[in-house]
Design goal:
By secondary structure, the protein is mainly alpha-helical. Helices cover about 80% and strands about 0% of the residues.
């Protein structure tokens, strides 16, 4: 329990130290201490490993993203949002490795834990639709596809949705 809030505790101590430095007249040291405490607050809400994995996924380096995610031993110890994005990233990496059963579990767990952005939810459901389609489960695939369409308000995934619809017609 305390591990979740360790970054905030350190940030609070640094913030109090920066106030002390301001009072003592060491303005530049106080500013640096304040900036470092801000970084600790940022790292509380954004997990470092998730940020690195997002970077590698964006660069299409899925092997490096998998190695970064493998370093996380207990994702349950993260904040719920971080945990959801950990499972989301794991699902993306596993789907690139063509390991559909692990990707399916990871995406379902990410959706259950609670992805924040609707586009991320739409991507997860679109991937689940593709996985169900690869398992020849057309009913489940169409269910996930309809949900992905509802969540894709900005029409960013329209090409992928049309592609999966075309694949569904062939089956």
């Amino acid at each position: 329990m305390i591990r979740k809030y360790l970054w905030l505790i350190i940030a609070g101590i640094l913030f109090l130290g920066s106030i002390y430095l301001f009072v003592e007249g060491m303005i530049s040291m106080g500013i640096w201490s304040l900036l470092v405490s801000g970084l600790f607050v940022l790292f509380h809400f954004k997990n470092i490993m998730n940020l690195l994995a997002f970077y590698f996924v964006r660069k299409n380096k899925f092997e490096k993203a998998a190695s970064v995610l493998a370093r996380v031993k207990h994702p349950e110890g993260m904040i719920k949002e971080q945990e959801a994005y950990f499972y989301y990233l794991s699902g993306l990496v596993e789907s690139q490795k063509n390991n559909s059963s692990k990707a399916d579990k990871a995406f379902k767990k990410a959706l259950k834990t609670g992805l924040r952005l609707t586009t991320d939810q739409a991507v997860a459901k679109l991937n689940l639709s593709g996985i169900a389609l690869s398992q020849r489960n057309k009913k489940l695939a169409s269910h996930y596809l309809v949900e992905a369409k509802k969540l894709d308000k900005k029409k960013m995934l329209s090409a992928q949705i049309k592609e999966i619809e075309a694949m569904m017609k062939r089956i």
